[in-house]
Each structure stands twice: as structure tokens, then as C-alpha cells.
Amino acid sequence: xxxxxxxxxxxxxxxxxxxxxxxxxxxxxxxxxxxxxxxxxxxxxxxxxxxxxxxxxxxxxxxxxxxxxxxxxxxxxxxxxxxxxxxxxxxxxxxxxxxxxxxxxxxxxxxxxxxxxxxxxxxxxxxxxxxxxxxxxxxxxxxxxxxxxxxxxxxxxxxxxxxxxxxxxxxxxxxxxxxxxxxxxxxxxxxxxxxxxxxxxxxxxxxxxxxxxxxxxxxxxxxxxxxxxxxxxxxxxxxxxxxxxxxxxxxxxxxxxxxxxxxxxxxxxxxxxxxxxxxxxxxxxxxxxxxxxxxxxxxxxxxxxxxxxxxxxxxxxxxxxxxxxxxxxxxxxxxxxxxxxxxxxxxxxxxxxxxxxxxxxxxxxxxxxxxxxxxxxxxxxxxxxxxxxxxxxxxxxxxxxxxxxxxxxxxxxxxxxxxxxxxxxxxxxxxxxxxxxxxxxxxxxxxxxxxxxxxxxxxxxxxxxxxxxxxxxxxxxxxxxxxxxxxx
Length: 488
Prior knowledge:
single chain, 8% helix, Porin, 21-stranded antiparallel sheet
């Protein structure tokens, strides 16, 4: 609990539904299913930059009456304050488990190319992910109010299976997709993305059990504590000096996405593309398509400037805890270890840590209604093998959209963590897309307990877009003519 009090969770778009489900998704589609590379209306897609920032918690908030996101851009704006301590957030007073997720992602220069039945992709990106899961309300409330919060004094708490994880990394990925089966108007495609990861910083706190009583503002009776702490951050642990570029990366790892897409097409094509110009590849519209994928399989292992501390069935009646003084991280952890074990180094159990990626299973569906109107859907559910892994929030969404080559509008309607309803909006103007899955935050209709916004700039070249300036004998399909025979 003391370690959580240090972290405190003081935090002032998760699935990019507006750019990952459409027929012009290109490289953005790799974020949800690598098999989708051969199901685009574009055969070449060049991503210049795609960015997503998402934050959500059920711990603290600013009331919608006091703050709208646009207020932060006003000159000399003063955030509202609450309580005798003049905090900028209001704590949600209930006994529910607390959760928080922060996800910042930049998809850098990337490219996707389809050649017949094959799709190829190269992606670059930077990601930062933070998740706090099943945080007991008592620990969250003491973090917010301090040990002098008398309503929680002399109550025995027995908390278990809570965790807090974070990681920041750069990634470069190679993707491949293949249409493994085609029969009349049906098609099955499979795909895989393999990403090399370079970890900048990471850490976790896994609490298996914390049985304790806060006696007063200076005494904690820790009856039993089972937990583990690991971290690798750009700081000198002896003096807290920042060392962000020496080295730049403290860990490395591997990430894998795998997926499959089944398509029921509207028509049967007699002639598939068999060579010639890539732009002469044909696109056949579909009735529906369904995809399944497993995302972010893997982890980052931090072995530079890393520490792992274990606390196994320790206990202590800790008086005068409020007088604990420390100048740096090693000093603090040394005193904690000495309190529990009588040895300032006994808790140190390793010099490397592993932080798992936010693995999840995803199901995508898209139905072609008529007149450029589609209804898409997505289901995301986290998969965690241990408490040292990042947790991707669960989400189910329905996304109606209107789509043309130059304009696209979608209205994602989602249920976050199967509890919290959200409505968003996204618009694409040819090469530029901007959207959010929390429209109420920007309209002053929802309390400020999270944020979601994403944007994308990319260039796509459509299938069948060849232009023959001179015409003549070479004006056939292999040289760019859009003519193709189809049988209904």
C-alpha cells in the first residue's frame, strides 16, 4: 500500500474506430487485424502520421458544470479546485474497484501494398500505455486524502489481486496477408504482423494480498503483505537525476498480431488480377465481412537500470510512518526492505523485469447496406496471463458510417468495459481523418474523467485507378484499363 501511495495515480481513443474499420483504412487497419490488407479499396496506402490519445478512470473527475475541454486552451485559465486541500479533482466516493487506463500511440511513416492475393506492410510507431486494475477503493481513497483521513481509520482491509503497470516503447513491424481461399463469391484471408520492440521505460506493481489497518495518521498495522514491484526508468536511483538518453532504450522485446477475415462478396469475378500494373487490380464489393484477431502478443524485457523487489508474507506494525524520509528511490526502497526484513537489500530479488503487452482478442464485422452506407462493429476483450502485463480495456461498439472516396463520416456507439456508454464521431476528408469516441467530453455533456481524440494523415491510391493518357492498342486491363467482365 505504501508503494501505491508513492505512485498515487495522480493523472491530470482507444481503438480508433473511425479509421480502422472502413474500406480506405489501409495501414490503420493493421492496428486491429493484419489480414485486412487485402480487403481495402486501396492497393497502396502511405501513412504519414496517425496519433491517438486516450485516458479513462473511475477514480476522480471534474464535473461537467465546471470544465469543458476547450477551457484548457483559454489564456490564464485557472482549473477549478475542491475541498480544503484545493485539489483539482473530485474523488468518486464509493466502494467499487478503481481502474485507470492511459494510451498514447503514434503510428509513424508506414506503408501497405497489395499485390494480387498478397498484402505487405511496414510500420513504425511509438506507444505509451498505463493501466491500473482492480485498485481497492480504500487504497485509492487513502492515496487521494492521505493517512489522516479518519473515516478509514481502525478498519481492517483485506485487498487482493490488484496491479499497476506501465510501459513506453518504439516499434517497427513487418506485416503479411494472403488470400488463402477463394470460392465463387467467398474469400478467406489470413495475416500476421511481427514487431520488434525497443523499451524506453516500464514498471509494474502486483499486489497479491494486502491485509492492513490504518491506526491513525502516523501508524499502519500491516498484518500481511504479498506483492512485487519492478521498474526500469530513466533516473539515477541514487540521486534521482534524469538520464533519459543514456541509454535511450533499456529493454527490448517482440510483439505479434495474427488474424483472419472472411468475406461474402456481392459478385463473382471471372478474371482475377494476374499481373501488369498494380493499379489495375480490381475491387469487388461485399455483402459482409467478419474478422477475428489476437493483438499484442508479447512483452518487453527491461534489463538495463532495472530492479525487482519482492515482499513475501511480510508484516509490520509500522509506527511513525509519516516521519519516513528519503532522498532517492534506493533510499526509500532500502528503508522499506529494512522495515520488513531487517536488511536494506533483502527485498531486491532481480535486476531485470518483463512487462507484457496489452494482449486482446478482437472480432470485427462490417455490413454493406446500400448507397455507401455501412454498419460496422467491433468487440475487444483483454487477455492477461499475469499481473505484470498491461491491460487493454474491454469494449464493444457499433459503428454506422457513410463512405465515399473523398469523404467518410462515422458515429461510433460503444460500451466501454461493458458498463459505460459512449458516443463518438469521426470524419475523413480524403487524406485527413479526425475523430473521438467521447463526444460528450467536448460538448460539456459528460464529467471530465477521461479523454479521447485521434487524427490521421495518409495517402491512398485506389484499385482500378490507372490512367492511360494515350489510349491505343495497349489500352487493356493489364495496362490500366478498368474494364473487367463479371458474372452475377
